[in-house]
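note to self: dont lose this again. the chain is below, predicted strucutre after it. 487 aa total, dont forget to put it in the shared folder this time
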Amino acid sequence: MPPINPDRWHVLSPYLDEALEIAGHERGAWLAAIDAQDSTLAADLQTILAQHQVVHESGFLEHAMMDPSMTLKRSRTGPRVEPCRPVSPIGAGQAQQELVGHAEAHAETLTILGRLYRRFGAFDKAQQLLEQALERGRNLFGPEHARVAQTLNDLGALLTEKGDYATAERNLEQALAMRRRLLGSEHPDVAVTLVELGRLYQDLGFNPRAEPLLREALGIRRKLLGDEHRETAVSLSGVGSVLRLRGDLAGAEPLLRQSLELNQKTRGADHPSSGTIMHDLGLIAATRGDEPSALSLFRQALAIYRKAFGDKHPSVAFALNSIARVLLLQGEYDEAAAALQEALDIARPALGSDHQLVAIYSINLASVQLALQQPSAAEALLREGLRIRAQAPAVVPSRRRTFLEDDWSLGATKSLLGAALVALGRYDEAEAALLDAQRDLESLPALRKAEMKATIARLAGLYAAWGKHDRAAAYSGQLVALAHTPR
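---
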């Protein structure tokens, strides 16, 4: 097909977005319906989708993850993100040449490319593009415009995934207020931002603030789009996630299963949204103690994420962490260690070495290394985790997609470090770490009984190994007293 000019891009872009939301085996009927109305449009879409399939089958995403800037220059169809997002037929470098003199199209394309990079996990590049798009959009359209609101929404969603919650909240609040003013309160775009803001509040642990936003989005989508629409499925899963986080598993599970059925019907069994819902259902199964079901659901989610995003995406790391959590409960330490090591290898380059998820995966892996009697490896991981957790000790990123046990406090992490040092025979250092851990845990507003119990037990064990039996006996007594303390 000939080069795409900006006007043609405006026409094709929403259709590409829709096409990549449709399961591959259903696209033929979708194209046939378009062909009946506009054969030229159908032909252009079919050509781009065919080029996209070539990129998909070439393993292009693996190259993209190593050098995202090279990806869009090498291909006019862009990287593989099937089946989540449109593949831009204007490469990043090519766009700079073809869109000179077309400022509006240039700003829109920067937003689309930013969303694209976000979808395959290149968050820093996505942020750069979206910030450029926001600046250009404000200069072109002024501060109050639907396109500016769209970019604020996309940037806020990205920053939530990066763990920059304060900036994400500002952007999403601005986007929501602007969309309400420009579009009215009952508009599909308002529902999109309500969902993103609700997810942010879930991650921050503000479930009571998240619930009304997610329920409002569900109401809007049911009214405007109907009960069988794929975006309604997204909102059903959001409300289900809220109920799960507040402990209402009986209320959450039917909503999630309804969402999964609807999502598979409208988007296909291999869509990443199906993987996310399966992951939520896995968390419910794990909470109930049904480890085989949890492990099966997490592995299904992992397979979907690998197929959709490739092997280096943060969503793959999420699923690997959850799998490792269950394997640890089952005593499968070697397999758990391998899963967590892969999660870390993904998270460090994708999220940055100071991201809180890197800390969580490091500490989880350290706990497995201790179980494998590898205290030296555990110590290095715990020191990395402590350094990162100290930067934002109250933040548990992506709380809606992690286990409660992933909420590693500084005290609990120092306690684990103390255990590693005891195993290494470095009793002076171990004593300092464990006493520091005890002080940190005592300073928390609410008693974390399991963590305090583990710390006191480690202090008793340290003093027994050190030959300081009076201190060992004193801490053993504290342990007995703690056992009778209400939660």
